[in-house]
Amino acid sequence: MHIRFSTTLLATAAAAALLSLTTPALALDVATVKPQLEAEISADYPHLFDIYKDIHQHPELGHQETRTAAKLAGEMRALGFEVTEGVGGTGVVAIYHNGPGPMVMIRTELDALPMQEKTGLPYASEVKAQWEGHETYVAHSCGHDSHMAIWVGTAKAMLSMKDKWSGTVMFIGQPAEESVNGASGMIADGLFKRFGGKPDMAFALHVGPDPAGTVSYISGPYDTTADSMEITFVGRGAHGSMPEKSIDPIIMAARFIEDVQTVISREKDPMVFGVVTVGSVTSGSAGNIIPDDATLRGTIRTLDEKTRAKILDGVRRTANAVAAMSGAPAPQIKLGDTAYSVMNDPVLTEKTAAVLKQAMGDKVSQMARPIPASEDFSEFERAGVPGEYLTLGGMDPKTIAEDAKKGIPVPVNHSPLFTVLPEPTIKAGVEAMTLSVMNVMPPKA
Ligand SMILES: [Zn+2]
Ligand SMILES: [Zn+2]
After folding, report:
1. From ligand 1's centre to the CA of 82, what distance in Å?
2. Percent of the chain clearing pLDDT 70 (strictly above)
3. Annotated catalytic residue 340
4. Which of 93, 256, 271, 276 has the largest count of CB atoms under 10 Å?
5. Is position 52 annotated as part of the catalytic site?
């Protein structure tokens, strides 16, 4: 919970100094900082684009991000940061001390997705890698490549203006966000013990399909809780012409996929958010063989604990009932890898929104509601660090207009067609992140 102030506390000079860090009042002289920052970003952009393009072309899956981590570590060392690699696996921690003041964490993810990019970009990924026992294409279809360019750009901008702020910045490159266990891995490896303690606050952003260069914010819950789901139906294999000799696991999988949606439509309160998606079905090897098992992988999304418990129970009950119907043994049900909602600190949100609106005007807006995705930035918050997580628009406005005319949805994150328009996205990301961080730092004494 964030610090609240009593009137007696305000009487002390120390509390007054702290207050300047935590009230919505602007701490930053935007009129002076903005032109300098924008000139710096324009000068840095060609290099930031090179970083983006290189990482886009060389995506790596969660816990395999060795090349990506080494690249970011090299960039930060060249800027003068104290860099530690291998934190929680492939994680990177880069620290810069710039006098007394708060310690502020700025986080990027390092990982890409096990999917094929179909954007047709000249620098599209053609990389393949091993993932869960098979070969897969790999692509930055969530946009983490742009986050990494923004992260380096923010570090560079913070240092170019280090005469204007005082404190410590902790830039972290986190592995395996997509499997939502990279943040907890870094914390377990001493992220908040080995590098000068727990940060006073943390910032991150995520690119999405809004118009490139826009920024949006929300106070309180930013996204949903996600639980992973893996269910294996165990049947009995047989010849495809002799179904009576089998217990067909593909029939069980198909039944489950349909029936589990009644947990959403008939058991959950229709006014409350909740999603169950089966995103992967694995079974069988040939058309004339009834296989002996089928595995489904999926995700469960909720905004509140009561609905979450109800849906998890419904998923278990449906899977067991489907197996019982076929006379099969109980299925193997794994529900886990939970990512809790990211909760934006209300005071930090108000303060950040104020500085961004002043600097970026009508490009900054409030999000109407939390987004249905999820992510493990929440682990840093659950460890006691107040967090601020922003949405950055990354979509070419032309694409948005053309798709609207055609009546089709724009490609969202995790679509094989998802792509960011690099220049306005990276520039706005660096500007928003640098201003947000400088805004919580006292001026240099
Ligand atoms: Zn993603
Ligand atoms: Zn992502």
Report:
1. 29
2. 94
3. yes
4. 93
5. no
